[in-house]
Amino acid sequence: MARMGGRKHLKTYVAPAWWPIPVKERVWTVKPRPGPHPIERSIPLLILVRDILGYAKTAREARKIIAEGKIKVDGKVRRDYKFPVGLMDVVEIIPTGETYRLIPYPVKFLTLHPIPKEEASFKLCRINNKTTVKRGHIQLNLHDGRNHLIRVKDPTNPVEDTYKTLSTVKISIPEQEILDYVPLEPEVLAIIIDGRNVGRVGRIIDITKGMGRRRSLVTLEDAKGEKFQTILDYVFVIGREEPLISLPQGAWK
After folding, report:
1. What is the per-residue pLDDT for 2?
2. DSSP state at residue 54
3. Residues facing 148 on adjacent strands
4. Which three-class secondary structure state does DSSP give residue 96?
5. 226: which residues sit within 8 A by CB, 6+ positions away?
């Protein structure tokens, strides 16, 4: 992929290949603003409204819909047509009541998946990193740019810190309260977020640790009993016995 950073504008031919935009019809496309997701793993709200959902035929129409506050992302109205929507984000169309979640999908990389209204009240976030902040409290750095503070009573014995890196938390939106926690370990369910197995769902069989996330190998088994492997950095935990989120038909049982 060609370099996309450093400029305010983005040419169509260097945009992420999974964006559903006609490369030969337009020279320029919308570049997402810096935000919770990187460019290669997000899509600007305008393209989502116009090219994926089909609520507008032109960029002008899409910008008007967004500016009027008709679209929510993770429970908050977003009026910026360049806002980046990415992995596990929940999109709500206010006038119609439709709700979607952006999830990994084979070949397409990321796709909007319709979800029931009650499922739009939460999202899954991967713990990408952990840091210790002032007074010994633990800060969870989540994949979508959020930071969640875990307060501890005794910094020398932080019993409240039960969270592990690359595990998943289920949070309410927009309140951002932790509702559930699923650690990264054998026997849990995970979805692949990148690579040639993107979108595949399987139960983790084994984790072979190496020097770093990209040198650690994870073995999974899908619903058909077929085993496959990917690197640790591409694994996103989504549940224990059953997925916490709805998936496309056939993705898991």
Report:
1. 45
2. -
3. 140
4. coil
5. none
For 171-212, what is each residue's pLDDT tens digit?
Answer: 999 999 999 999 999 999 999 999 999 999 999 999 998 888
Sequence-distant (≥ 6) Cβ neighbours of residue 251 within 8 angstroms: 191, 199, 200, 201
Give me the half-sphere count of Cα atoms (radius 13 Å) on the Cβ side of residue 241. 0
Terminal CA-CA length for the chain:
35
Cα torsion for 167, 149, 41, 102, to the nearest 10°?
80
CB 14 within 8 A of CB 21: no
Per DSSP, the three-state class of 45 is helix
Q: Tell me 46's DSSP state.
A: H
pLDDT digits (tens, 9 = 90+) for 47-62: 999 999 999 999 999 9
What residues does 127 pair with on adjacent strands? 142
Q: Which residue has the tokens 């932790």?
A: 178
Q: What are phi and psi of 117, to 5 degrees?
A: -55, -40
Where on the phi/psi map is residue 17: left (φ > 0), alpha (ψ -120 to 50), or beta? alpha
Identify the CA nearest to 214 among candidates 168, 166, 176, 181.
Answer: 166
At residue 138, the pLDDT reads 94
Q: Name the residue with tokens 């559930």.
A: 180
pTM of the model: 0.92
pLDDT digits (tens, 9 = 90+) for 75-110: 999 999 999 999 999 999 999 999 999 999 998 899
